[in-house]
Design goal:
- The N and C termini lie far apart (66 Å).
- The protein is α/β, with parallel strands linked by helices and 422 residues long.
- Helix 6 crosses helix 7 (214-221).
- The strands form seven sheets. The protein has an eight-stranded parallel beta sheet with strand order 1-11-8-6-2-3-4-5, with helices on both faces.
- Helix 7 (214-221) links the parallel strand 12 and strand 13.
- The protein folds into two domains: 6-174, Glutaconate Coenzyme A-transferase; 189-421, Glutaconate Coenzyme A-transferase, CATH 3.40.1080.
- The chain contains 14 helices and 27 strands.
């Protein structure tokens, strides 16, 4: 079906939305702020409209009480949504990232009635690049009944599988504004120590997946002396340095050699300018980047993810504090599973040994009651804290417990040992 690609003002474009619709937003730096702002301005008439998305850097304006008619469904909880959740306006959807492209597209449980995207202007052939956010927005937009695009000349044109043709877009709003950015986090001594331990697990020629935050930043900074790495799924500002120094080349990948497969780009203008038409960067939806089978085929895949707590059996929660949902499943299980099946692969869970300013151990005898298990014990591999690396894959109950105690903070090791005797 050929669509109109009709240019409209903001109010008219959002005027196409109706109360009760389900509307998907791109996560991260791809969030179309002007369109979201207009949804908020029209919130009084859009009662029951459900905004669906993940990590939002735009401050969640739709969660404010003056937009109480708007609802949210999210696969990534945030403290900024807690008040709205208590009001019954937010529903958390416990789904791993690989399944977003079936559950949040037409035919899925959360099929959107409309998708709001942000793109570059069309090229000479009529293709608009989704730029920095392809993973979920592209497959959803390809099948949605209504697609509204915020066309922004500041959006980089990225290569690969990340574009829509003008015939696939209903309404266009031209807005020239800075993209939302994600500045590099501050890295301290603790994160630097963890980053060095993780880097020691990365062989030359590996494909490395990291998330966002200070520890992933420290890991990337610790890889500066490696050779022929590839990055996977996410790019942040530190990637620019690694590419410019010849550390990241993708030269030893088993497929897509000489390219890095990315679904989301989260950084600053430095990164956005760098990826513009850069032939090393190959954009792909989450059906590709998060497919455990394809991850395994890459070989030498090193997945680096985080945790809130790990118990002495190796169970990991990266999403809840007891029964309280504070984050999401994300891609952790997808990448842990893929790395476990990859030739030479390793899955790393990296975390500080303590929380609450050192008051509690994050390695615990058992997860708190009601905690969600993000990575089950039978697939746990390498656990890293500032005190070292615990390789638990294949170990028995006592062996893995003792390995984990060895990387716990010394102040809590005796208490953890006593819990084994009990």
């Amino acid at each position: 079906m050929t669509r109109a690609f009709a240019t409209r003002e903001l109010a008219d474009a959002i005027g196409r939305l109706r109360p009760g619709m389900r509307v998907l937003l791109p996560p991260g730096c791809g969030e179309p702020r002007a369109l979201v702002g207009e949804v908020c301005r029209q919130s009084d008439r859009l009662t029951g409209l459900v905004l669906m998305g993940g990590i939002h850097l735009g401050g969640y304006p739709f969660a404010r009480t003056d937009h109480a008619g708007l609802q949210m469904a999210t696969w990534q909880m945030s403290p900024r949504l807690e008040d709205a959740r208590r009001q019954g306006r937010v529903e958390f959807v416990p789904v791993r990232y690989f399944d977003l492209v079936t559950e949040f597209v037409r035919g899925g449980h959360w099929a959107p009635d409309a998708v709001l995207i942000q793109t570059s202007p069309p090229d000479a052939h009529g293709y608009l690049s989704l730029g920095v956010s392809v993973s979920v927005a592209l497959p959803a937009a390809q099948r949605a009944p209504l697609v509204i695009a915020q066309v922004n000349p500041r959006m980089p044109r990225t290569l690969g599988n990340g574009s829509l043709h003008r015939s696939q877009i209903d309404v266009v709003v031209e807005v020239d504004e800075p993209l939302l950015d994600y500045p590099p986090p501050v890295v301290g001594e603790l994160e630097t120590a963890i980053g060095r331990h993780v880097a020691g697990l990365v062989p030359d020629g590996a494909t490395v997946q990291v998330g966002i935050g200070a520890i992933p930043q420290a890991v990337l900074e610790a890889l500066v002396d490696h050779r022929d790495l590839a990055l996977h799924s996410l790019l942040v500002d530190s990637a620019v340095t690694l590419i410019e120094r010849g550390v990241v080349t993708g030269a030893r990948k088993r497929f897509h050699r000489g390219r890095i497969d990315i679904g989301e780009i989260m950084g600053t203008r430095r990164l956005f300018d760098f990826v513009h038409e850069h032939d090393l960067v190959n954009m792909e939806p989450a059906s590709f980047t998060h497919d455990p089978h394809l991850v395994a085929e890459v070989g030498r895949f090193v997945a680096v993810n985080s945790a809130l707590e790990i118990d002495l059996t190796g169970q990991v929660t990266a999403e809840s504090l007891g029964p309280r949902q504070v984050a999401g499943i994300g891609g952790q299980f997808d990448f842990v599973l893929g790395a476990s099946r990859a030739d030479g692969g390793v899955s790393v869970i990296a975390l500080p040994s303590t929380g609450r300013d050192g008051q509690v151990s994050r390695i615990v005898p058992r997860l708190a009651a009601g905690a969600a298990v993000t990575t089950p014990r039978f697939i746990a591999d390498a656990i890293v804290t500032e005190f070292g690396v615990a390789r638990v894959r294949g170990l028995g109950e006592r062996g893995r417990a003792r390995a984990l105690i060895a990387v716990a903070h010394p102040r809590f090791r005796e208490e953890l040992e006593r819990s084994l005797a009990g």
